[in-house]
Every structure is written in structure tokens, then in C-alpha cells.
From TrEMBL:
Claim: S-adenosyl-L-methionine is one of the keywords in the record: yes
All copies of domain Radical SAM core, residue ranges: 1-193
Keywords: GTP-binding, Iron, Iron-sulfur, Metal-binding, Molybdenum cofactor biosynthesis, Nucleotide-binding, S-adenosyl-L-methionine
BP-aspect Gene Ontology terms: Mo-molybdopterin cofactor biosynthetic process
Organism expressing this protein natively: Flavihumibacter petaseus NBRC 106054
Needed co-factor(s): [4Fe-4S] cluster
Cytoplasm among keywords: no
GO molecular function terms listed in the Swiss-Prot or TrEMBL record: 4 iron, 4 sulfur cluster binding; cyclic pyranopterin monophosphate synthase activity; GTP 3',8'-cyclase activity; GTP binding; metal ion binding
InterPro entries in UniProt: Aldolase_TIM, MoaA_twitch, MoCo_biosynth_MoaA/MoaC, rSAM, rSAM_sf
Designated name of the protein: Molybdenum cofactor biosynthesis protein
Length: 298
């Protein structure tokens, strides 16, 4: 949670369930085959169930990223909506550190919900943002988690966004992560699917696997096919894009938005939204023009 008091977007500015469905249907008509609900926290919306039920009517693979706090309450909705893959954001396996990072005492609830999801047959991906000096020493603990549990752990390099106190010294690179893991475990490379943003690995014989999302040190922009639609109906063609296109306004006015979507697809920058170079060590995060991560979705 943000350290400061967070001001939520007024309800009239947010897409409503029928608008989400209508805009999503246009993306599907243009070739989109997968939709993932993210946040912020998508399950805090009172109409979250309705949104999932609506999207389930489209011919797409539907997924969700959540902090896991309310995942147990929504398991029937996940099942009814055809959601089989649940991404859970969890940066630590230590309850005290969890409170330090989130300002909430929900670690045991989140951990137990993950176990319940696995037991119910969901494919669970745990997203861990690795920050030097904070949680990088826990990487082996997350690897051990995959020994008996069919969980996929994804180690994510710390990325710069508004308000997240990013500094290049906090970036613990993919190469460092892999080196730390290989000090204790044998590792085999797994086959990545087309357009995957992560690089997959496994300890031989373990039930689960792990992956690296190396945005800062090994960007995957040349194969990225993601588009992001914010809760207030703005389209971003990259997490780091300084620009966004309003789809909700024209949609509410009854205007076509296909051309706006196509222009954004064609306008994707060569790398990292055109704002970040590979020498990220010299980046001043305060100079980036962007939203906070919780208002982008990821």
C-alpha cells in the first residue's frame, strides 16, 4: 500500500462492467486472445464478480493478478468464469517483513489462500519483486517452496514507477538472482512460449518452477505484445509509456475506437516506452513521466 493517503479515482471516471465488456469485445475482435485483470487490487471493486462473469462470455483466456487477500472469497467466481491461472503478488515469506512492505498484517491469510488455490487445482503464479537489501536473500526460500508445491514463482526486477522509491542500487539483476540460486540448487532451462515476458527455469524433480522477469537488465520489448487498459479507460502500449490514449470518452460518446487501438499498437516504442535506456544505472526515476504502478496495472 502507498505510504501516503491514496486518493481513489471517482466512480464516474471508472469504466463500468458493461463498458469493460464492450471495450474488451473490440480488442477481441481485433485479435486479442488473453485478458488479465490487474490492479491496484481488482477484487476490491464491488462489481468484481460481475466484471469477471461478463468477460467470461468472450472467446479469450481470462486471468487475474491479485494480492491474494480476498482470493478465497472469489474462488467460486474464478471457477464459474473459467479463470484457471491466478497471479499472486507476494514479495516475502516473512510475516514481519510483509507488514513492513504492505503496512498490513495479512501474510498468513495470503499464504493460506495460496495453499487453498493450489489444493483446488488452480495454477498459481507468485510474483516476487526483488529489491536489493530488502528481500533478495529470500530467493532460495521461494525456490524451496517449489519442491513439493506445483507453484510458479516469478522473480521480478525492481522497476521505476511514480512513488515506489526506486533507485538503481535496489535493482537485483536476473544474473544475480540466477547466480544466487545456482549456489544451492541445480537448475535447468525450460522452453518459453512465444511472446512470454519471463524466462522459465526449474530445479530438476521439483513439482513447481520459477522464472525471471528481467525488465531492467534484459528487456523483452522485441517480443512483447501486451497492451494495458487502465481502470479509467486509458490505453497504454507499454508500462513505461509517457503517453496514454483515452478510449472511454470516445466509447461513451458512441465513437469508434478501433483506429485508436490500432494506432497504439503501431506506435509501440522500440524499448521500454522510449523513456529508459539499457544503462538504467544513470536513470533518475523522478524524470519519468508515468503513473504509479497501482493505477497502471501489471
Amino acid at each position: 500500500m502507498p505510504e501516503e493517503d491514496y486518493h481513489f479515482t471517482p466512480l464516474p471516471q471508472l469504466m463500468q462492467p458493461d463498458e469493460i465488456l464492450g471495450i474488451a469485445a473490440i480488442f477481441v475482435r481485433m485479435g486479442v486472445k488473453k485478458i488479465r485483470l490487474t490492479g491496484g487490487e481488482p477484487l476490491v471493486r464491488k462489481d468484481a464478480a460481475k466484471i469477471m462473469e461478463n468477460l467470461a462470455t468472450l472467446p479469450v483466456t481470462l486471468g487475474i493478478t491479485t494480492n491474494g487477500i480476498r482470493a478465497d472469497e472469489f474462488m467460486p467466481v474464478f471457477t464459474a468464469s473459467g479463470i484457471r491461472t491466478i497471479n499472486i503478488s507476494l514479495d516475502t515469506l516473512d510475516a514481519g517483513k510483509f507488514h513492513l512492505l504492505t503496512r498490513r498484517n495479512y501474510f498468513h491469510r495470503v499464504y493460506n489462500n495460496i495453499q487453498s488455490l493450489i489444493a483446488a487445482g488452480f495454477h498459481v503464479k507468485v510474483n516476487m519483486v526483488v529489491m536489493r537489501g530488502i528481500n533478495e536473500k529470500e530467493i532460495p526460500d521461494f525456490i524451496r517452496w517449489t519442491e513439493k508445491q506445483p507453484v510458479s514463482v516469478r522473480f521480478i526486477e525492481f522497476m521505476p514507477f511514480s512513488g515506489n522509491h526506486w533507485h538503481h542500487d535496489k535493482v537485483f539483476s536476473m544474473d544475480e538472482m540466477l547466480g544466487l540460486i545456482q549456489q544451492e540448487f541445480p537448475v535447468e532451462r525450460l522452453q518459453d512460449a512465444l511472446h512470454d515476458t519471463d524466462k522459465k527455469f526449474q530445479v530438476p524433480g521439483y513439482a513447481g518452477n520459477f522464472a525471471m522477469i528481467s525488465t531492467m537488465t534484459h528487456p523483452f520489448c522485441d517480443t512483447c505484445n501486451r497492451m494495458r487498459l487502465t481502470a479509467d479507460g486509458k490505453l497504454k502500449n507499454c508500462l513505461f509509456s509517457r503517453t496514454e490514449t483515452d478510449l472511454l470518452g470516445p466509447y461513451r460518446a458512441g465513437e469508434p475506437i478501433d483506429n485508436l487501438i490500432l494506432a497504439n499498437i503501431m506506435g509501440k516504442a522500440k524499448a521500454l516506452g522510449g523513456q529508459i535506456n539499457t544503462d538504467y544505472e544513470h536513470l533518475d526515476a523522478d524524470t519519468l513521466a508515468n503513473r504509479s504502478m497501482i493505477t497502471i496495472g501489471g
